[in-house]
Amino acid sequence: MKVLLTGSKGQLGSCFQDRLPAGWKIWATDSDVLDITDLSAVRAAVANFQPNIIVNAAAYTAVDKAETEHELAALINKVGPENLAVAAKEVGARLVHVSTDYVFDGTASTPYIETDVTNPLGVYGLTKLDGETAVAAVQPEAIIIRTAWVFSEYGNNFVKTMLRLAKERDTLSIVADQRGCPTYAGDIAQAIIDLLQKNVSGGVYHFCGDKEVTWNEFAQSIFSIAVCKGRLSSSPEVKGISTDEYPTPAKRPAYSVLNCDKINAVNIDRSHWVNALDVIICKI
């Protein structure tokens, strides 16, 4: 198997390289090697490498900045994936594209299934949805994975931010009225590999953590494990606040829990994020 990976320096890209099966050949690229928004560059790179699989782990993920950087977000989240789909189709490669729970508006009260109506609240979610649509239009057999609240030992994420703040402050106020499922990037990477090895049919698959929480509850889990592991001497006091008390440029869904029955049906378990958190806190 020959895999062209984009976004190789990000959380998912880094974890994907860690889990690469023996015998798979990979060309790991980031924006400094391959600009996915440049169709001619993408075509040339794909034609030269001739991959069987393209895994697109590249994304514009700055949710709040996207509100003022709409064009850049659209280039990376919509145009880039579309370019990869075009190039993949030309060489007969299959594309795996990663999307987000933020394609939903959060008004549901039960976990979202793949066919539920989408209605992103902000530019980030909108551009990611546009990317899904563009990929599916070019390559219907592409695998699109929606995931959520990604964390890992790599890059910048909520876990690292909480650990840093816990060392700086005695009290933290964390949003307690947004519910979702934390997901370990390493588990997403393994799910992608498993889907490819099983040669599943194309379409959208939801994959996220196995336990839904609020950001406040997620933070408390981080601090509890960090104290047990000796990474923190004590846990800060964690106060729950409402979204209205912590205004941000981008509106976020109040409920973005994903139903993972479809991916579970091909024997891929959800991310056991508490176990992963226990492991990666020792690595950070």
TrEMBL record:
Domain of life, source organism: Bacteria
Listed InterPro entries: dTDP_dehydrorham_reduct (IPR005913), NAD(P)-bd_dom_sf (IPR036291), RmlD-like-bd (IPR029903)
Pathway listed for it is: Carbohydrate biosynthesis; dTDP-L-rhamnose biosynthesis
Q: Which cofactor does it need?
A: Mg(2+)
Query: What's a Pfam family in this record?
Result: RmlD_sub_bind
Q: Where is the signal peptide?
A: none
Q: What class of enzyme is it?
A: oxidoreductase
Residues forming the RmlD-like substrate binding domain are 1-281
Q: Catalyses which reaction?
A: dTDP-beta-L-rhamnose + NADP(+) = dTDP-4-dehydro-beta-L-rhamnose + NADPH + H(+)
Q: What is its EC number?
A: 1.1.1.133
* Note accompanying the cofactor annotation: Binds 1 Mg(2+) ion per monomer.
Keyword field contains Lipid biosynthesis: no
Annotated keywords: NADP, Oxidoreductase
The terms under GO molecular function for this entry are: dTDP-4-dehydrorhamnose reductase activity
Q: What role does this protein play? A: Catalyzes the reduction of dTDP-6-deoxy-L-lyxo-4-hexulose to yield dTDP-L-rhamnose.
For this chain, the family text in UniProt reads: Belongs to the dTDP-4-dehydrorhamnose reductase family.
Report the protein name in the record. Answer: dTDP-4-dehydrorhamnose reductase
